[in-house]
Amino acid sequence: MAVEDHRGSLIVVTNREPYIDEKAAQGIRRLQSAGGVVSALDPLLQRSGGAWVAWGSGSADRETAPGGVRMVPPIDPKYPLHRVFLSPEEVLGYYNRYSNQGLWPLSHMLIERTQFSREAFHLYRRVNQKFARRVASLAPPNGSVFSHDYHLALFPRMLRELRPDVAIAHFWHIPWPPFTLFRLCPQHQEITRGLLGADILGFQTPQDVDNFLTAVERGLKIPVDRTQGVIQVGTHRVVVRDYPISVDITAIEHMVNTPRIQRWTAGIRKRARNHHVSLAVSVDRADYTKGLLQRLQAIDKFFAQYPEHRRRITFLQVVVPTRTEVRAYRRLYDQFVDASARINDKYGDRGWTPMVHIRRSIDRPRLMGLFRAADYALVSSLFDGMNLVAKEFVSSQIDNQGVLLLSEMTGAAQELEEAFHFNPLDPDDVAEQLHRAAIISPEDRARRIKSMREHIHDHTIYDWITRIIRDLNDVAHTYATP
Ligand code: GDG
Q1: 364, 436, 369: which is closest to 397 by C-alpha?
Q2: Residue 2 lies in a domain
Q3: N or C: which terminus of the chain carries fewer CB neighbours within 10 A?
Q4: Any domain includes 451
């Protein structure tokens, strides 16, 4: 069955919108979100129609969407983007507080950063209801809905109550914690029950699936069929599976091969050669789950324990500010800058700066070009649902040169077996793996990166979508057949 088989009836539902309109000094600035989900689902809707429903968060979003609807892409529009508008109070309760200070840290097992409140949950529920009503009013009979992530955990059940004829897939992008932790969420039963409104429930890894099934068994006392990954809730059947998300490796290979990006890559390499250094890159949102400070500790250890690598490697870190309205995130960035400066003071000398950081977003083709130029990528997340940066770095290595150092706490580590894995909380381990990576033979390096590239070629973002939509279509057909 083709992915397009939903025949224009697919509605994608996300917190972040694929196209944002911002007020600028001269008129309106149109922005496109850059993440993997948008780059995979936007072309699908452009090809086969359907609709996208998301929070209209841009400052000019109301102006450009009369009646809450804007046709997108802005040039040569193909499908409607339905914007759900939220009050400042709703944004604070639903997004900043319940989603980002509650579910996000808890799912990443960072209890001390987790805060819940009934008031925030009340607003979270209200916003989920807004999304459900909007989608219920749009979905064609027996249509299909593909909703996403921890912002919308109550949405599947709410939509099912309003529109029992619609088939729903929901994908959870972040880790699902063990039940001993998850039960700390005061609304854990409501969250789990909310998700069980879906027909297809997707997670990144088998471990996440397992943890979710335990939450159903122990939190809701509903039996689960672990061998099939099936839960029967009254007459409703929920299929729970792992669908590891991925990237469009062919698009990345094309991107790094264009003359513009080849020039950019060559420029970076030349600069590194002039300074006689190899380049290790890290690219993250400035989020405490990405282990930024722990990484710096490990780099300090590396230069202390293996002085032969001083003046030989520069760590280039792209750190994109994120969720700056939350205090913990602003503080993290300042701490990161201070700790980088300390390493530079301690080890740097004329002609060699150990740590360089860029505090802004780089456009995607250039980012892929930077990956290609790098000798190493260092991904040090404390917990990460998947980590697309790791897969993008591997995809960009068309010369089969780069070495990936990857935290074993990422979903990606379960697939990318040929990376150098480490425990992100063990600076000695990270230092040792960095040393191993730095002295690897060219043959071993080529073998490892080639094997990981082959894996990603066999498991692309399109395979991810195809599997989910196929499973969703199977359900939709059973709904359509009385
Ligand atoms: C969540 C889960 C899961 C970063 N800096 C720039 C830039 N990026 C892009 C990367 C990558 C994306 O942002 C980050 O994706 P990750 O997967 O690494 O992490 P999260 O943002 O935390 O994503 C995660 C993911 O959802 C998907 O399910 O893998 O576990 O936490 O694509 O390239 N892009 C551009 N400039 C930058 O400076 N253009």
Answers
A1: 369
A2: no
A3: C
A4: yes
For ligand 1, atom 13, the nearest C-alpha belongs to: 35
In a domain, 48, yes or no: yes
Question: pLDDT category, 469, cuts 50, 70, 90?
Answer: very high
Average pLDDT for the chain: 94
Report whether pLDDT(45) > 70. Answer: yes
Is 54 or 333 the better-scoring residue by pLDDT?
A: 54
Task: Give distance in angstroms: CA of 482 to centre of ligand 1.
Answer: 42
Atom from ligand 1 closest to the CA of residue 388? 17
**Pick from 147, 132, 127: which is nearest to 11 by CA?**
147
How far, in Å, is the centroid of ligand 1 from the Cα of 377?
14
Ligand 1 centroid–CA 279 distance in Å is 21
pLDDT in tens, 100-125: 999 999 999 999 999 999 999 999 99
What average pLDDT does the segment 248-258 reach? 96
In a domain, 122, yes or no: yes
Tally of CB atoms within 10 A around 97: 20
Nearest atom in ligand 1 to the alpha carbon of residue 390 is 18
For the entire predicted model, the pTM comes to 0.95
Residues 208 and 279 in one domain: no
CB 45 within 8 A of CB 51: yes
CA–centroid distance, residue 470 to ligand 1 (Å): 25
**Owning domain of residue 227:** 10-245+462-480
Residue of 147, 140, 130 lying closest to 52 (CA atoms): 147
User: For ligand 1, which residues put their CB under 6 angstroms from it?
Assistant: 34-36, 173-174, 245, 283, 285, 318, 320, 361-364, 367, 384-389, 392
- Predicted confidence (pLDDT) at residue 3 exceeds the cutoff of 60: no
Tell me the best of 146, 150, 151, 283 to mutate to test the pocket of ligand 1, counting ligand atoms within 8 Å of each CB and taking the most. Answer: 283
Rounded to the nearest angstrom, the distance between the alpha carbon of 103 and the centre of ligand 1 is: 18
Residue 9 is predicted with a pLDDT of 81
